[in-house]
């Protein structure tokens, strides 16, 4: 049969008929193996999809965290840009500092900065943010400093009305959103909306820093002084980064030295004048000295 099939094509129809008859038998015999392969593929595909889904969920959480950090960094970057813009406009030397703590006492409004004595910070220096005067340094360590906010009830700063130069003293009220002008005559030319800036008097704060905007003016006919409340310019409860004005303390030190040397100079001048008078008066003769 092999020789016949090889030499002729007589067995082709027979082979085709047998293949047709036996095809269901072959399919039935192979179906368990085929079904097992399909099930295996489905199981592998399901496991892969579950693992992939878990990976995608983890990645989504990571990206969500990154997005949240990005929003925070974007906002902080905007605040730093505003602060650097303020720094570029200042004639004084300044140091950028970050608020790292709030003093937890109900009777005072103070914050802690991450810059201290080793960074050139000194007691009495002014602190500002991107909008205006923030406070002044009241305590120091080598690595940190404590700042008294302008709204603290124990804080006061000499100011003037930017519109007309009327001078006054602006004090804190203990409220983060309110300041008060002290002892302002009812005749003073101060109206709602006036911008108050540091006057520079006293040498503690450099002149020209915005401090607040007049929020209300109340005149009582039975009082000699008007009640004037002011809204702080600085974001006292929101700022994270501030600028410490370093030259303010240097100016104060120079003024103190001038005050200390002034009496010495006056004494020297008085001695020189007395010596000049002695030199100008003619010497007395012996007869004049004997006269009663």
Fold and architecture overview:
The longest helix has 78 residues. The protein has a six-stranded antiparallel beta barrel with strand order 1-2-5-4-3-12. Strands 6-7-8-11-10-9 form a six-stranded antiparallel beta barrel. A hairpin with a 6-residue loop joins β7 and β8. The protein folds into two domains: 63 residues; 152 residues, Thrombin, subunit H, CATH 2.40.10.340. The C terminus is likely disordered. With 292 residues, it is of the alpha+beta class. The chain is built from four helices and twelve strands. 42% of the residues lie in helices and 25% in strands.
Strand ordering within the main sheet? 1-2-5-4-3-12
Binned strand content: 25-35%
Mean pLDDT: 77
Write the CATH fold name of the largest domain. Thrombin, subunit H
CATH architecture field of the largest domain: Beta Barrel
Listing every helix as H and every strand as E from the N terminus to the C terminus, the arrangement reads HHEEEEEEEEEEEEHH
Shape: rod-shaped
SSE layout:
Blueprint: H1 2-7, H2 12-89, E1 94-102, E2 110-113, E3 126-128, E4 133-140, E5 145-149, E6 156-161, E7 167-172, E8 179-185, E9 195-198, E10 210-218, E11 225-232, E12 241-245, H3 247-280, H4 286-290
Antiparallel strand pairs: 1-2, 1-12, 2-5, 3-4, 3-12, 4-5, 6-7, 6-9, 7-8, 8-11, 9-10, 10-11
């Amino acid at each position: 049969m092999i020789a016949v099939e090889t030499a002729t094509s007589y067995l082709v129809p027979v082979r085709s008929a047998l293949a047709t008859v036996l095809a269901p038998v072959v399919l039935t015999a192979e179906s368990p193996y085929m079904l097992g392969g399909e099930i295996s593929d489905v199981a592998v595909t399901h496991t892969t999809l579950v693992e992939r889904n878990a990976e995608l969920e983890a990645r989504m959480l990571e990206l969500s965290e990154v997005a949240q950090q990005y929003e925070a960094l974007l906002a902080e970057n905007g605040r730093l840009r505003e602060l650097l813009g303020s720094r570029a406009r200042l004639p004084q030397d300044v140091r950028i500092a970050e608020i790292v703590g709030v003093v937890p006492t109900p009777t005072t409004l103070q914050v802690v900065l991450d810059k201290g004595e080793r960074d050139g910070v000194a007691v009495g220096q002014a602190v500002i943010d991107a909008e205006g005067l923030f406070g002044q340094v009241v305590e120091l360590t080598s690595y940190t400093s404590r700042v008294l906010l302008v709204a603290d009830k124990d804080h006061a700063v000499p100011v003037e009305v930017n519109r007309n130069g009327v001078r006054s003293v602006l004090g804190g009220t203990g409220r983060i959103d309110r300041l008060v002008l002290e002892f302002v005559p009812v005749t003073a030319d101060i109206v709602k909306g006036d911008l108050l800036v540091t006057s520079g008097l006293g040498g503690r704060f450099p002149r020209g820093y915005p401090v607040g905007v007049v929020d209300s003016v109340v005149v009582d006919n039975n009082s000699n002084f008007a009640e004037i409340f002011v809204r702080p310019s600085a974001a006292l409860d929101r700022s994270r980064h501030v600028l410490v004005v370093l030259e303010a303390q240097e100016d104060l030190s120079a003024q103190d030295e001038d005050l200390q040397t002034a009496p010495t100079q006056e004494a020297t001048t008085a001695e020189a004048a007395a010596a000049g008078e002695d030199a100008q008066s003619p010497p007395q003769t012996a007869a004049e000295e004997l006269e009663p």
